[in-house]
Amino acid sequence: MRRLTFALIVAMLFTAAAASAASATTGDRIRELLATVEVTATAPYHPGYDRDCDPGACVFGEEWTDDNTTRFGHNGCTTRQDVLLEQMHHIELRWGSKCRIYQARMRDPYTGRYVTWRRDGYRIQIDHVYPLSRAWYAGAWAWSQHRRVNFANNVDRELVATWGQANQDKGNLTPADWLPPREAYHCRYVLKYLQVAVRWDLSITQADADVMQDVASRC
C-alpha cells in the first residue's frame, strides 16, 4: 500500500511538473531569449546589400538554391519546394517528381487562412522571418558567402510559407513595425524571430524588444 501511495505521489508530482513546464512555454522562452540577444538603440546600417543577383552581387546567393549545407541542401529540390513540403500537409506529388506538388493543404500561420495548392499555390510565398536586408545590416555583411547562403535557405527556423499578401505587407519590417495579422500567432512569430536572431548572432532594436516584451506578457 505504501509503495502504491508513493508511486501515486511521484506520478502526481511528475504530472504537475510537466503541466508547470507546459504553462511556462512561449512567454518565458521569449523573455529568456530577450535576455540573451544583442539589443541596439537603432537599426544598424552597412552598404552593399543586393538581393537581385546583379553581376558581382547576389550577397545571399541565388534565390532558393539547393547548393547549401543546411539539413535540406543538395536533395534535388529547391529551398522553396523544401519549405512547402515541410509545412503543407495532405500532399500529393506530381507523377515522377519528389519535389513538385500536385495538391496539398495548409493553414497560413500569419493570416489563419486555409489554403489549397491547386487553387492558391501561385499566391503562396516564402517569408524570411528575420528579413534578409536587416540581417545584412545587423552583421551578415561580415559573414562568409557560404554562411549567408545557409542563412537564406534555413528551412527549420528562418522560412515560413504564407499567403502572399501578408508577405508583401511585411516586406523588410521587423516586429517593431509588423506582426502577423493573426493575433494568435504573435507569440510563435516573436519566438521564431528571436530564435533566429540568437542562433545567427543578429541584433534587434530596442523598439523590437519593447514589442516583444509586450507580446510575451500575453503568451
TrEMBL record:
User: What GO molecular function annotations does the UniProt record carry, in alphabetical order?
Assistant: endonuclease activity
* InterPro entries per record: GmrSD_C
Signal sequence, start to end: 1-21
Name the source's superkingdom: Bacteria
**What residues does the GmrSD restriction endonucleases C-terminal domain cover?**
79-213
Write out the entry's keywords from A to Z: Endonuclease, Hydrolase, Nuclease, Signal
Q: What is this protein called?
A: HNH endonuclease
Species of origin reads Nocardioides agariphilus
